Amino acid sequence: MNSIFKNNRIIYIDLLRVLSIVAVVILHITADLLTRTNDFDSASWWVNNILNSIARFAVPVFFMISGAMILRVKITSYREFYLKRVLPLVIPLVSWSLIYALYNQYVVLKSNIGVLEFLKVFGYNLLVDRNYVHLWFLYAIIAIYMTVPLVSKMVKACEEKDIRYFLIMWFIVSIGYRFVTDTVFQLTGNYFYMPILNIPFFTGYLGYFVLGYYLYNYEISLKARNLFFNLGIISFFLTPIATYFVSMQDGVLDEMFYGNYSLTTFFMAIGLFLYFQEKEPHFQSAINYKVKKMIGSVSKASFSIYLIHLLVEIIVAQRISTQGAFWDTSLHLLINIFAVLIVSYISVKVLQLSKVMTRILFGGRG
Q1: Contact 51, 338 (CB under 8 A)
Q2: Where are the transmembrane segments (predicted)?
């Protein structure tokens, strides 16, 4: 790639990381109100629904970026890969699970259980991912990284048509089939199951992982690029409207179009990735070095911001009224989002002044 500035960072990848961590913060801040009210006609619900809907690309894009970056690396030693890539994810998983578990047990629940009993509960919750809501991402990315020494060799040995075949099958099984079953359930109240599509190799976040690698390394046709881009734009508009109607039908928030494998989320993610990739030459010429450096700094901190932001949200964010007016709700949300991002970023940078803290809390990531 020729789209690398002085410190060997790829601008559109950095921008996607920054945009995705902003979207993650939006998701978690807006989720609070969406889970507290079923008044789907209120202005406050609509503001939160719209913001939450358009931020749904975040997790798939994070997986796509990871695949684009890590699958290009040549792996010569399983041991070295695990020490350099997997262990730095396991360490913050344990440390942040402990931090959030302590907070939940002794601050939220106001428990007075002893150390041994706490450690038993913590150990079990660590195994089954019950310590805090957003840490699921670490379990998922660690699981995928464990496949990388093999998958990276497979994709490099494959021709483009082979990877494209995998992605088409993954789309059918993980995205298309799920949309059909969800739609049938919405219309009939019954689950629809096709045993022939129970193909484990084509399910899970590995598809987004390989998709990122494919888009990074192979040029797709202009026709396909425009199709995905247009479907992405349609999905940004369709997701909040579709969520409204399915939620009205159920009487409670229905997350059919919120899911990471939903049809609209897929098209938002791939459309956004392709758009930023196409604009790379423009970013190179239009963004000065100091701005690039700042973007790179936030991008490098995005993983750490992800880990700490919910703790920051608990401390600094103000709860939004379920009956707030449109402008009041919008303003309060923007203040919350801005405050959580700024405080999280500053906290990360301060903590990273210590190499020990950087290693323990963030796996050594800068």
Answers
A1: no
A2: 12-34, 54-73, 85-103, 132-151, 163-180, 192-215, 227-246, 258-276, 297-317, 329-351
CA dist 243 and 265 (Å) reads 12
Residue 84 lies in a domain: yes
Residue pLDDT, tens place only, 238-252: 999 999 999 999 999
For residue 6, tell me if it sits in a domain. no
Domain count, the chain: 1
Query: Could you tell me if 169 and 179 are in contact, meaning their C-beta atoms sit under 8 angstroms apart?
Result: no
Residue 2 counted as domain residue? no
Please give the DSSP secondary-structure letter assigned to residue 180. Answer: H
Tokens of 92: 């913050």
**What percentage of the chain reaches a pLDDT higher than 70?**
97
Tell me, yes or no, whether 357 lies in a domain: yes
Question: Is 258:53 a contact under the CB 8 Å cutoff?
Answer: yes
126: left (phi over 0), alpha (psi -120 to 50) or beta: alpha
Q: How many CA atoms lie within 13 A of 267 on its CB side?
A: 22
Nearest to 211 by CA among 169, 167, 177: 167
Largest CA distance in the chain: 63
